[in-house]
Amino acid sequence: MQIEDSFLPILIVQDGQVNSCNQVFSALLNLTISDIIDLNISGLLHLKVNGECRDINTLFDDSNGIIEDEIHSGELVDCNYYHIKVQFYCKKIEISTFKLCFKIIENKAIDPISGLPNGWAMSARATHLFNTSNPLNLRMLVVSVDNFSTINFRYGFDAGDEYLGVFGQHLQSRLQHEGLVVRFSNARFGILIENRDYLSSLDFIDHITAICQNLCNWSLEPLCLTSNLMVNKSISIGVSADHSEYDNYFAMEIAAETAMRESERHSNSHYCFAKTTIKPDLMMNKLIIDEFPAAIENSLIKIHYQPQYELTNNKLVGFEALSRWIHQDLGYIAPDVFVRIAEDIGLHFEFDLWVFSQVCKQLVQWREMDVYSPRVAINISFKTLEMTNFVTRLQAIIAKTGCPKHLLEIEVTETASITNMLTLIDNVRAVKDLGLHIAIDDFGTGYSSLSLVRTLRSSLDTLKIDRSLIADICDSKLDREFARKVIGLGEVLEVKVLAEGVETLAQRDLLQALGCDYAQGYYFDKALSDIEAKKLIINQNSD
Question: What pTM was computed for the model?
Answer without folding.
Answer: 0.55
